[in-house]
Amino acid sequence: MKQIPVPLHKKMAITALAGSGCMLFGLIYFIAAKDRIFLLLSAAVFLNCAWRAYSIYRIAVKGTYEVIEGTCVRINPQLIGKFRTVIMMDDGGIESTFRLAKNLKLKIGERYRLYFDNRNQYKTGSGFFDKALATGNFLGCESAPAAVIDGDKNSERQFDDFEKD
After folding, report:
1. Per-residue pLDDT reduced to its tens digit, 5-24
2. Which CATH architecture group holds 65-145?
3. Global pTM?
4. Where do the domains of the chain lie?
């Protein structure tokens, strides 16, 4: 069995806890006020959260997610809306542009690992619409360790040896 990455595990747990808390509150309120409609709405929210948590679990176990690791190069804030444009650069120098939630704490110059669901990727041909449609595929993010390139270590070692002679 494949190990579940920490951001996916965290999102799955928070989703399940939110649904369980809503159901518990609905049950307590039903006992106190005998309100069946509120209980049914709480049960609907619970079932939706349970389905979403199970769906995240399936994505994590099957490995149907895409991991993009790189350095945050630029963040373009949007004045109106819930999203902002984030530009990441991987180790190969390729830039990728994403629309991520404003509440996601990213810093320019830091390395991150972003997780996306790659099951439902929509391609319209328009870069703006493709980025806007992909916002629902974002699963989570974590800090990534700094990349160490072996070639750089070897060249430093050779340079050190050259100075000693």
Report:
1. 899 999 999 999 999 999 99
2. Beta Barrel (2.40)
3. 0.73
4. 6-62, 65-145
